[in-house]
Amino acid sequence: MAEQDYDFDLFTIGAGSGGVRASRVAAAHGARVAVAEEYRVGGTCVIRGCVPKKMLVYGAHFAEDLEDAAGFGWTIAGKSFDWIKLRDHVQADVTRLEGLYGQTLSNHNVTVFTERATITGDHQITLASGRVVTAKTILIATGARPHIPEFPGHEHVITSNEAFHLDSLPRRILIAGGGYIANEFAGIFNQFGSKVTIANRSDTILRGYDEAVRDRLLQIAMVKGIEFLFRAQFEYVEKQDDRSLRVKLTGQDERVFDCVMVATGRVPNIEGLGLETVGVELGERAQIKVDAFSKTNIDYIYAVGDVTDRVQLTPVAIREGQAFADSVFGKGAPYAVDHSCVPSAVFSHPPIAAVGMTESEARNQLGSVRVYQADFRPMKHVVAGRSERALYKMIVDAANDRVVGIHMIGPDAPEIMQAAAIAVKAGLTKADFDATCAIHPTMAEELVLFK
């Protein structure tokens, strides 16, 4: 088919962060672009992920802030919390952001189809309405969804998707999982007054984060009243007449909860896309396999974001979408996204932030390393009478003094880490940190005061 015979130069399936970025950048390069989205423009992050979750995190922090205010001389009488008010405010802002994402596509003359799209032939896409269109290039950016394990009664559980829409706060909630989603929602519900229990099938939370940091979170969370059950998997969940849930976990007696949430990983959304029609290759986790330039084994089909299961983070999907659009439709040389040294955060209570190698990774890969650590009580906590301590950790390659990892848990750790991540990515040395004057008094100054 001649190029001018295609309906579009690019057809993107999925209007999440990666798909929207790729589409608008491709359009800015002069491509004729269409996007199909069957749910809501914005994807997981904007609609039911990191953005509304961070708003809940902010709301939850006020529980401790109001307590701590007394140490600073404030008397706050009659305080109360209205879950419905917060929930509805958050959803209103999600709707606002959805409109902005749609406006961005419209401003770049991207055609938006608010329906499901399936690949039905070579360069061919069929919409749910029955319309058939063609495209020179197809991009799949359908993201991922929460994984729900199979066990008797699994239909009674919720995921993070539904957590944003609860009609009331559960008095007792069980959260299954040990990753960032489980620990973030545990902190949120705990601060809102729920009795929170985390059940994890292994004996480790936040696998992949530095051991000292995740151990500190476990200690602090337990002090805050969050209960942890390790090596516990579902045997069954039964709904009672009063709508409560009777739960049996391996190695545990039956327990009753008002809500059970599973946060046991996410799986790529590849069903019903018609990938088998054209022979797109999948990996062992049902992810779409791509090369460094996000191209599949089919020359004109690409994929970015969580559906590729490379690094399931919104900023990574955005970078992949940008690189794809620039490389395929821009005038410059093609380039790939560097997936190494990606900073990340867990918006737990308190939050965690990390970049680069953990101590164990560095010792395994580099051999000789130097480890610097600051274990301190933030000034705000001292005045408030709170015993909670922050922990900062720096990992240095002993062979060349290069900082290869920074790991933090404490107030505002993610905000501090963004700048520190630049230094680690740039390959700066411990001497470069030492040569930088501290900003005093701050928590961040600990990064340039390690001894």
Description:
It is a single chain. The chain is built from 13 helices and 21 strands. It is α/β, with parallel strands linked by helices and 451 residues long. The chain has helices spanning 17-28, 43-48, 50-68, 83-107, 160-163, 180-191, 211-223, 275-278, 314-329, 359-366, 379-384, 413-425, 430-434, and strands spanning 8-13, 33-36, 111-113, 117-121, 124-127, 132-140, 144-146, 172-176, 195-200, 227-230, 234-239, 245-249, 255-257, 259-262, 266-268, 301-303, 344-346, 352-356, 369-376, 390-397, 403-409. The model has no long low-confidence stretch (mean pLDDT 96). It has three domains: 3-146 and 267-329, FAD/NAD(P)-binding domain (3-Layer(bba) Sandwich); 154-264, FAD/NAD(P)-binding domain (3-Layer(bba) Sandwich), CATH 3.50.50; 350-448, FAD/NAD-linked reductase, C-terminal dimerisation domain (Enolase-like, domain 1, 2-Layer Sandwich). The strands form five sheets. Strands 1, 2, 3, 4, 5, 6 and 16 form a seven-stranded mixed beta sheet that branches. The chain has a five-stranded antiparallel beta sheet with strand order 17-18-21-20-19, with helices on both faces. Helices cover 32% and strands 23% of the residues.
